[in-house]
């Protein structure tokens, strides 16, 4: 209970009693007026010279959170559809310093409320849902780890009894982000260089605007030196608030695992920008002289740049992008063909994609162009865009390029999906780099674990002969499995030798 004339030796003492009072009667209050001792001493220095600082206030007035009247807008057309907690409740408590200046005293109070009061209503008031700083820090940490908000809410309910809402959790996270000002571009780049020991090269326009960024840390450089033979290249989008694509170069190691070789942020995908990026990659990685094949999409600018910088390397077009491009271009509207002709052309093109060798390809191709059912528009399009570069997209022909049986960029798509599962859409640059290296650390940890298993574990199966055992000791288990399938097939085995 609290009553007029009740005194308290400190503001802390008053607060404890006040909290019990609010919980008992299911009512909440907020400070509507006050004057601190520090301010009051300037006006009453003699009167308050012996007043202890623990009282904190010269006077303080608490009004019910439903007190006050909402001031309506005079122009009805401009009113928004909102609500207010102000219900003109008269309840208040007025606390002031006693006449001798040694205690706080309840001078006046009104306990008459004009609204419903219950335990459920009280527990859902904003002040009662407010979390302690430590709990709030835990929420921010869990939200940053993308924990399910419903599970976080359940945890808080169980541990604190607070009726926190899902919107409260979102607001806590948003408020915390606003407190931390994103670093500018120069600060971010310097932090990435120092924290992750990266090599970063910038392409800047004459007016100082960024055109491109090349990034490679020591692990990327080492992995490429060890496995430079095949490089998958592609871009992914919507990761950075600058709305520029992230370019990823990826290689395959001896265990069949994917490793990032280099990263780039390119403002555009023009020929000049791509040329700068790949030229920088070539300059900083002498092992690129051993790169035998690049797997890309059918972008002419990219393939032209790669062919000029790596004339000895094969260009392989990702099978998925090949089929998708053909499906986009072979349409009734673009070529003026019927739906049946379109569907027939697509089926034949798919057969051409999966041809096992040149002979099979030419047989299907000859039947295709000589058929009376084949529209001449489709033949013209195919001959112009695909036939003369068949060694870049026919699976039976690309396997001779040294692509380690990779006919698609699925490795890159897998990496890109991991990026998007952790990095929010259109993140600021600081947040993007922080979470990018979290992903890289996680992926590398898994890759290293797989490599350690190769060393630490030996097969429990018995080898069928001495040759099989020798191959196993020479190769990684991943490579050995390919050899094992062909070990007892004379024709294929001779080819392997």
Automatic annotation (TrEMBL):
Q: What are the residue boundaries of the ZSWIM1/3 RNaseH-like domain, all occurrences included?
A: 195-313
Any Pfam family hit: ZSWIM1-3_RNaseH-like
Instruction: Read off the InterPro entries from this record.
Output: Zinc_finger_SWIM, ZSWIM1-3_RNaseH-like, ZSWIM3_N
Domain named ZSWIM3 N-terminal is located at: 2-115
Membrane spanning residue stretches = none
**What is this protein's name?**
MULE transposase domain-containing protein
The organism's superkingdom is given as: Eukaryota
């Amino acid at each position: 209970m609290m009553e007029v004339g009740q005194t308290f030796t400190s503001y802390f003492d008053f607060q404890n009693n006040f909290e019990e009072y609010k919980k008992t009667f299911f009512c909440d209050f907020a400070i509507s007026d006050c004057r601190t001792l520090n301010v009051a001493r300037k006006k009453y220095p003699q009167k308050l010279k012996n007043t202890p600082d623990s009282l904190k206030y010269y006077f303080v007035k608490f009004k019910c959170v439903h007190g006050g009247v909402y001031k309506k807008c005079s122009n009805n057309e401009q009113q928004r559809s909102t609500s207010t907690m102000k219900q003109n409740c008269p309840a208040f408590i007025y606390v002031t310093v006693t006449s001798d200046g040694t205690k706080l005293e309840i001078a006046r109070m009104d306990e008459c409320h004009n609204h419903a009061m219950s335990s459920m209503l009280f527990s859902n008031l904003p002040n009662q849902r407010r979390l302690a700083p430590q709990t709030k820090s835990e929420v921010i940490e869990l939200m940053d780890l993308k924990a399910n908000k419903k599970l976080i809410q359940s945890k808080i309910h169980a541990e604190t009894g607070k009726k926190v809402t899902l919107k409260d959790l979102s607001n806590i996270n948003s408020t915390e982000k606003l407190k931390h000002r994103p670093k500018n571009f120069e600060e971010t780049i310097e932090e990435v260089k120092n924290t992750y020991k990266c090599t970063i090269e910038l392409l800047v326009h004459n007016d100082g605007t960024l055109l491109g960024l090349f990034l490679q840390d020591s692990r990327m450089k080492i992995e490429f030196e060890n496995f430079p033979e095949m490089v998958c290249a592609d871009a992914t989008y919507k990761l950075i608030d600058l709305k520029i694509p992230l370019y990823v170069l990826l290689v395959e190691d001896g265990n069949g695992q994917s490793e990032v070789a280099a990263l780039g942020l390119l403002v555009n995908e023009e020929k000049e920008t791509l040329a700068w990026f790949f030229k920088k990659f070539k300059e900083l990685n002498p092992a690129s002289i051993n790169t035998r094949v690049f797997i890309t999409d059918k972008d002419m600018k990219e393939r032209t740049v790669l062919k000029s910088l790596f004339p000895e390397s094969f260009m392989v077009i990702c099978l998925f992008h090949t089929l998708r491009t053909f499906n986009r271009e072979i349409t009734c509207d673009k070529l003026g063909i019927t739906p049946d002709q379109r569907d027939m052309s697509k089926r034949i093109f798919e057969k051409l994609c999966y041809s096992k060798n040149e002979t099979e390809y030419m047989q299907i191709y000859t039947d295709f162009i000589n058929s009376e059912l084949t529209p001449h528009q489709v033949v013209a399009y195919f001959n112009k865009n695909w036939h003369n570069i068949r060694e870049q997209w026919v699976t039976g022909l690309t396997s001779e390029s040294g692509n380690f049986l990779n006919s698609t960029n699925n490795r890159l798509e897998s990496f890109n999906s991991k990026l998007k599962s952790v990095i929010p859409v259109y993140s600021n640059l600081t947040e993007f780099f922080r979470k990018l290296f979290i992903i890289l650390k996680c992926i590398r940890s898994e890759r290293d674990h797989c490599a350690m298993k190769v060393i630490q574990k030996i097969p429990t199966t018995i080898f069928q002969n001495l040759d099989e055992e020798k191959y196993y000791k020479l190769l990684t288990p991943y490579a050995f499995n390919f050899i094992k399938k062909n070990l007892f097939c004379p024709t294929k085995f001779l080819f392997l030798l």
